[in-house]
Every structure is written in C-alpha cells, then in structure tokens.
Design brief:
The complex is a heterodimer of chains A (458) and B (450). Chain A has helices at 52-70, 102-115, 188-207, 222-234, 239-242, 312-317, 351-356, 407-412; strands spanning 2-17, 20-38, 41-47, 86-90, 122-139, 145-163, 166-171, 178-180, 209-210, 214-220, 272-274, 297-301, 304-305, 326-327, 336-337, 342-344, 360-372, 378-390, 393-399, 401-406, 414-417, 422-431, 436-444, 447-455. With 458 residues, chain A is of the alpha+beta class. In chain A, strands 1, 2, 3, 4, 5, 6, 7 and 8 form an 8-stranded mixed sheet that branches. Chain A has a 5-stranded mixed beta barrel with strand order 10-17-18-20-24. Chain B has 450 residues and is an alpha+beta fold. Chain B folds into 2 domains: 3-215, PmbA/TldD fold; 226-448, no CATH class. Strand 2 (20-38) of chain A pairs parallel with strand 3 (68-74) of chain B. Bound molecules: zinc ion (ZN).
C-alpha cells in the first residue's frame, strides 16, 4: 500500500530593527513524501523531484527500505494505522496575505519599531513577523484524499533597555505570539499599543529590583503557562516517548502506561485538553498525517490522567487510548507523535480575585528561559516580567523572575484557575530522530500555584 | 549519474545561466545546502522507522548598491526544471527588492577564488545498518537511537566568480543502551561516526557502552542539593559549549545587548587562564567558506588563556558597526570549536576528583541569567557519586544552575590532557557539517539546585 503527501510551504521572515531593514528572507519548499507499507512496516522516501519519474523513484526507495525494516521491526502494524480519509481544511482568515503588499507590511513594522522608541534608554527595537503558508495534500488507496491549507503568523516584537551595566529585554509574550490567522493581524491599531507596552515595561525592568529568593504563591500568566503546559504535560504524555522511541534524544517520561486512568497529575481544578479544533490556535487541523480525523479530547480531567498523546501507530503498540496527533515537520521526515493544541481549560476565578487572595506572591509573564529533565520532572523557568504581590495588592515590578519545581508537586499545588483563556503558540518544538521542528499551540488562563520556589538573577 | 553529481551539475550550470541574466549593478550570491540521506531509527534493538531523503536548497541573495533581497528554493537535479526555477526565483527576488526598504548594511560579495573538495566514501545505507544492528546488538542491550548517512554538500557561487564546492560522504550512529524498567532505568549514550563503515570502532563503542552500563547496576543515590566537585566528561563539556555558543560569542548579540558573555567581552570579568577556545577549521569538520563565500582564517582564537580575543563577526555585523568580518555566518556561532587540553591524565581523574560527581552527560542546558552568564540544565545518562576516588553508585538526576564565570573561572581546577572529537549530530531540517574537539574538566563548587 502506498500513500503520497505533497507538501508545499512558503515561509517569510521580515524584521525591522531600529526602524531599519534587519532581515528579509523568503523560503520556498516543495517536496513529496511517499510512504509504502510492506509486511506491516512503513518505509518513507522524500524527494523534491515531484515529476512522475521522481515520485516513482521515491516509491521504489520507500518500498525497498520498508522491506528491509520489516525483517526486524519494533512492531508489525495493521492497515488500520492509515484510515481512509477524505476532506479539506483551511485556516479561517479574514484577509489573505496578498491583501497587504510587502511595502505596506514593512511600513507597519517600521511603525512598530518607532512606537517602541520612547526613550534614549531603549537601545534596541525589533519588530518582526514570520508568515507561514503550508499546504499538505495527501492521497491514499481507494480514492482517499485530503487537502489542508494553513496560514500562520508569529510575531517577534521586542525592546531592549540599557542603563549603565543593566540590560533588560522585554518582548511581546516572550515570543509566543503565534496564531493561525491572515493579514488582519498586521493592523496598526492591533500592534502599536502592544509595542508601546513592551518598551515601557523594558524601561520598568532596568529600574526594578531583583526577584526575591523564597517560597511563595505564584500566579502564572497565560504566556508563561503555555510553556509550563508544553514541557511538563505535553511532552511527558507523548505515547512514543512513553514507549521509549525518544530515549536516545528527547528522553523518556515519568508517566507509565499503567498510570492512565489512575494518576492524580494535579489538583481537581486541572483540566487539560487536546484540541485541534480551536479557532485561531496555531496547530488546528482536520486530519493528522495518518488520515485520522482530529477531535477534541480530555487528556487530564479533574486532575486525573486519562489519555495519552499517541497516534494510531502508538495506539496499536499500547493499550492506552490516544488522539489524532501523528505529524511530521515536512515531506523529508516521517510523522511521529506530536503535540498539537494542548490547552488548559478555564476555571471560575477572576484575575482580580486571584491577586486579592495572595498574601505573599509573584506574578510572572512571558517566558525567557526553560529547561526540564529527560523524564520531564525537574523544571526551571525564567520569565521576563515579574510583579510582587503583598496582602492582595501588586506592589512592585521585579526583574529576572525564575521559578523551579517538580512536575507532579507543582500541578498538585494548583489552587485557582482563571476564567479567561488566552491563546499562544510557537513554531519551534523539537523532537525526533532525525530531528523535527513543529508548530504547537497552547491556550491557558492565569493559574495560581501555592508554595513555589522563586528566585532572581545574579 | 548519482544524485549528488546531478545536483552538482545543475548547480554549476544553472548558476552560470542565472549570473548571465543579471542586469545593471545587480550582484548575486547562491549557496547550496544539500544531502542524500538514509535515516534509520531503532528502539529496543529493532527498527522503528526508515526514511530516505534527497534534498537541496539554494539560498539566493541579490543586491544592488542600496537594496538586498533573499529567497531560498529547492533544486531537483533535473537541469531544465532547475534552470526554470533559478530564473523564476531571480525574478521574484527582484520584485521583493523593489518593495523592500533600503539595505542599511551593504556587504561586499566575496572574491575568494575557486575550490572543490569531494570526500568520497562507501557510507552505510539503511539495509546495511538494519542488518548490522540485528547481527551485533544483543537483545538485552535495549539499543535505541539512529543512523544518519550519505553525501552532505555545501557549496557557493557568486556573480564575482567565487565558487566553492564541498561534498562529504559521512555517517553517524548515535545511540544509547538502557537497562531496567522505566522509572528505575540506567542508560549510557555514545556515537560512532566516519566515512566508510568502521567495524572496529563500532565493536569498541558497543563494548565500552556495555561495560559502562554494567557499572551503573546499583541503586541510584539521591544527592542533596548543594555545591560539589565535579568531573565533566568531554560529552558533558559539549553541552555547555553548545549553549555558550548560543549568543555567547556573537558580535551582533554583543552590540545589541544580548550577549551572555558581555562582561567578559568588556574585560570586566575573566575566565581561568587554563581556558583557551578556538574556532578551528583545521579539525576538518567544517568547510572554511561560509554561505556568502567568505573564507575564514584556519584558526580564530575566541578565548585565549581566559581572555576574550574575538567574537564571531559576520560581514553584515561588520558593515553595521564598522568592524572586520572573520567569516562568521549570519548566526555568528562557532561551528568547529576546539578547547585546548590541560594536564589532568585519564588515570588520575577519579583520584583528583576524590569525592564528588562524575558526570558523563548533561541535558537541556539553557541560559538562566544573561548578565551573570548563568546556565541551568540537568545531569543525564551515566553519572556517578565518587568517594575517595572510588565509584560508589549512580545518582538520581540533578539540576544545576552555575555561572560560567565560576565554573570556567576560579572553579576550573584542570582540563584533561586528552580531547575527544565529535561530529555535529544535529538533524533539524537538515544534516550539518561541523564538530568539536574537547577535553574533560575538573571543577570545584558546581552548584546543584534541585
Ligand atoms: Zn517541545
């Protein structure tokens, strides 16, 4: 059996720094991945020669390495790992990218840079966009055919303030401002106020005290929650990691197959979903690359772990239930279990309620440093912008805000969950051998955690 | 004709056609990154996935006196099709150039002559490695990892007559052996690399890994947080070097306030005089020409006896700040770093460590504080607690948070008198040239926080 995926992608990088052209690069990629199953083993061959003879050659190659692999396979798969699929997906957008000329886009970015030019102490002002337009056109046996078109934008907006030896950079959402969207994002009234805030907060940071080192309540903003979810929930729940595929590179997982349905991952307020259907979130799609139709599923419900991030291949290898998340970075890589949109569902608390409830606390915004071990347990995160809370009131801004902890302890200390979802996403999640970079979305509200170790720089 | 030579012919012929189509004061530089790769990944000594890839990307830079545009597109190896593409994307790049603002940092295209290198070998293919693993890896090895193998190509041609071609048939197998169940497992990691399959180094590597894994078969000891004397094996030093190279040695990062070794560059801090870092092309891992055809000196000292000598400086940064480029590519990261050896002999490592931690590998290292050059990360794979020069037991993984000014400064007791060479095993989007030659390090007061 043979499947053919034609993938076309155009990625443009446009950046203005200090009101001048910093970077303009357009990368056009086009290739075909042919997949052939022989004796329950799938071989993959990728080529950019998309002529009939090029595809034929790729098919022969894929068949030959499928046969070779089938002599000593990890698992002998059934045909069910590639279900019949038919349909289309297209990012819902208001305005196409063609509706804004390159000149108009660069002018907007110059204005963004200028909007950050509010003080001599702002020494660097950077305004950039990455625009990705991808089409995945898949064909399989018996007329199976899907076409999915994605429009994606990531914003890179940042200001660096300097006074003496003190240098601080503030960015828009810690560079997690990535969405499925059209050129409606490039409107001045949408972007310029954000630029001003970024620059003002960079100035605040060079005047700010260092974050204290102690244990306190931690209110995590949605643009830091995204990476907390990503690193300490998303990756450990990937079923191929649990099955050991990634142990030489990305790592294993503290989560075991027998934990599903039982493990108290976090407090009962914790509800985590796999949701590839959410409007505007960066990793929304209709089908994964096995052809499985994607739908929203709870991974953790009321704090209990119930479902893994495993596509159809992992589901055949394991008794654990999974989702439609078998994805590749492009035509030159085989699909593996990936995150898509992994979200924290909203709770009942307003932001004001949460702040008022904190006697001694810290609010953190926008990730700037991240690290976690290969089992996804001991983590440390650094954030751009911190606010101290004393007796229910925000009292000070602090710089170099960091916190660390262990995954289960941390999520079990979840005390309040905000009532408003914010959506973020990144283009850069790394995994796999050979390695792949893929886009993932994370929507989350503000969340309050008790007794977390926080510390500063220096 | 093999794919590699088809791509070579297409790149050489079509770049000439493209240059012949330039108008007025247009100049063009074309670089090529290409590979023909077999990837086979294994889990539990069995084959998980096999992927074969042919990919070639041309990076076109067009500039006039005051404008610039860049566009990248794929080559197929079919002469006619590729000629159409070259001319199509030349046209698109021109259109973009029109619409873009002025280029504030004009560069002069390199005139660095012509060179050609074709390092031919019989690299192992998918069939070979699948059989090899089936024959030589034992069932109880729990072997996991992958092979990447085949021709790797980097080339550049520009409209001023510069032309360099470097292709190298190479492979690596990067693997780990595990024992024990999830949650209580022990593991070691290693890799072998070369051009023609080297059975002896494969067997030696597997044998050493088995022995090493055997030494780990004791309950893991939980070490309380605190400061310990540590020995970092060369593979662990590499993790620190990789993260330090991420902005730490970049001229643009320095000029823009983003350099984590800013205080070192300013001369306000210094590192141990035992420490010397060199971007060393003589190691043979990395072609000396960059994607614009600029050719680096054979050796660029970065840190010499603890003092910063050079930052990696690209021609764009040089243009902006009126400096001299040293042939760095746009990312301004070292690609072929050597750290000079010290005097610690292999046989004396445990004796000199005396009581502390022997760390074979580190994991997920990231900057935790830019100003103080602090790095955080984890221990991984074979790490031991050592008392009075004897291995006592493996350890449970620990998180560290240390300043380079400490661990590569006053805390650096000695470096080993031997170095280990490693090829770059990064395969994000594409395989890469590059590598390193690094010693081990003995360090006091290494701070663990979790
Ligand atoms: Zn990730």
């Amino acid at each position: 059996m043979t499947w053919i995926h034609s993938i076309t992608e155009k990625t443009t990088y446009r950046t203005i720094r200090n009101e001048k052209l910093e970077e303009s690069l357009c990368v056009v990629d086009q290739g075909v991945r042919v997949e052939v199953m022989e004796n329950g083993f799938i071989g993959y061959a990728g080529t950019q020669d998309t002529s009939t003879s090029g595809i034929q050659r790729a098919e022969e190659k894929a068949r030959s390495i499928a046969l070779a692999g089938s002599h000593n396979p990890v698992f002998k798969f059934s045909a069910k790992v590639r279900p019949f699929a038919q349909g289309v997906y297209k990012t819902p957008i208001q305005k196409s990218f063609d509706a804004v000329s390159l000149k108009q886009l660069m002018d907007v970015l110059v204005d963004c840079s200028q909007a950050m030019n509010i003080s001599d102490k702002i020494v660097q002002r950077s305004a950039g966009v990455i625009i990705v337009e991808t089409q995945i056109h898949s064909k399989g046996p018996n007329g199976a055919e899907t076409v999915q078109d994605f429009s994606i934008v990531a914003l890179n907006i940042g200001a660096t303030a300097q006074e003496g030896s003190e240098v601080q950079t503030r960015t828009l959402n810690g560079r997690s401002a990535g969405y499925q969207i059209g050129s409606e994002l490039f409107s001045r009234h949408r972007l310029l106020p954000n630029c001003e805030t970024v620059a003002r907060q960079a100035l605040e940071l060079i005047e700010a005290e260092n974050c204290p080192h102690d244990k306190r309540d931690l209110l995590v903003g949605p643009d830091q929650m995204y990476i907390q979810i990503h690193e300490s929930i998303g990756h450990p729940l990937e079923l191929d990691r649990i099955l050991g595929d990634e142990r030489n590179f990305a790592g294993w997982s503290f989560v075991r197959e027998e934990d599903f349905g039982k493990l108290q991952y976090g407090s009962p307020l914790m509800n985590i979903t796999f949701d590839p259907t959410r409007f505007g979130e960066i990793a929304s799609y209709r089908f994964d690359e096995s052809g499985q139709e994607a739908k929203k599923e709870h991974l953790i419900k009321n704090g209990i772990l119930i479902r893994a991030l495993g596509g159809l291949e992992s589901q055949e290898r394991s008794p654990v239930s999974g989702v439609a998340n078998f994805r590749s970075s492009s035509w030159n890589r085989a699909p593996i279990d990936r995150m898509a949109n992994i979200n924290m569902e909203t709770g009942m608390s307003t932001l004001d309620d949460m702040i008022s409830s904190m006697e001694k606390g810290l609010i953190v915004h926008s990730n700037k440093s991240w690290s976690i071990d290969d089992y996804r347990d001991k983590f440390q995160f650094g954030c751009e912008y911190g606010q101290l809370v004393e007796n229910g009131k925000i009292t000070k801004i602090v710089k170099n805000s960091n916190y660390r902890g262990r995954t289960l302890d941390f999520w079990r200390n979840l005390a309040q969950v905000g009532d408003t979802l914010e959506t973020y996403g990144t283009l850069y999640c790394g995994k796999g051998e050979p390695s792949q970079i893929i886009r993932v979305g994370h929507a989350a509200p503000y969340c309050l955690f008790k007794d977390i170790e926080v510390f500063g720089g220096g | 004709m093999s794919w590699k030579y088809k791509i070579q012919e297409s790149f050489e012929k079509n770049s000439k056609i493209l240059f012949a189509n330039l108008k007025g004061d247009e100049e063009v530089s074309l670089s090529l990154d290409a590979e023909e790769s077999d990837f086979v990944r294994f889990n539990k000594g069995q084959v998980r996935q096999t992927t074969s890839v042919e990919q070639a990307q041309v990076n076109l830079v067009i500039q006039t006196q005051n404008k610039i545009a860049k566009i990248a597109f794929p080559l197929t190896g079919q002469l006619d099709e590729d000629r159409k593409r070259c001319l199509l994307y030349l046209g698109k790049a021109r259109q973009e150039m029109e619409m873009l603002p002025e280029n504030p940092y004009p560069i002069i295209l390199a005139e660095s002559g012509v060179s050609q290198k074709d390092e031919k070998a019989e690299t192992p293919n998918s069939h070979f490695i699948i059989d090899k693993v089936a024959q030589t890896v034992h069932t109880n090895d729990d072997f996991v990892g992958y092979m990447a193998s085949g021709p790797l190509i980097k080339a550049i041609a520009n409209s001023k007559g510069t032309s360099h071609w470097h292709s190298s048939d190479i492979y690596f197998v990067d693997y780990s052996l595990y024992s024990g169940k999830q949650g209580n497992a022990k593991a070691v990691t290693a890799n072998v690399a070369g051009r023609n399959w080297d059975e002896e180094s494969w067997q030696t590597s597997l044998g050493q890994s088995r022995t090493f894994l055997h030494q780990l078969q004791k309950p893991a000891k939980k070490i309380p947080r605190g400061e310990y004397k540590v020995y970092l094996a060369p593979a662990a030093v590499m993790e620190l070097k990789n993260t330090a190279s991420w902005g730490g040695f970049s001229q643009a990062a320095y000029k823009q306030g983003q350099c984590s070794l800013r205080l070192l560059a300013d001369g306000q801090m210094q590192l141990s005089e035992k420490l010397t870092l060199i971007e060393n092309f003589e190691l043979g891992f990395q072609p000396r020409f960059n994607s614009l055809g600029e050719v680096s000196e054979a050796q660029i000292p970065i840190i010499e006896n603890g003092l910063l000598k050079n930052l990696m400086t690209s021609s764009k940064t040089a243009s902006e700040f009126n400096l001299k480029s040293n042939g760095a590519d746009t990312r301004e990261t070292p690609l072929t770093m050597e750290i000079k050896p010290g005097s610690l002999k292999r046989d004396h490592i445990f004796k000199e460590l005396n009581t502390g931690l022997y760390l074979s590998n580190l994991h997920y290292v990231n900057w935790s504080d830019q100003k103080s050059a602090r790095l955080t990360g984890m221990t991984r794979f074979a790490c031991f607690w050592v008392e009075n020069g004897d291995i006592i037991s493996p350890i449970q993984d620990m998180r560290f948070d240390v300043s380079l000014y400490d661990i590569w400064g006053s805390g650096l007791i000695d470096l080993t008198d031997f170095q280990e060479t490693s090829v770059n095993i990064s395969t994000y989007n594409n395989r890469e040239f590059g590598g390193s030659k690094l010693p081990g390090m003995l360090i006091r007061d290494f701070k663990f926080t979790l």
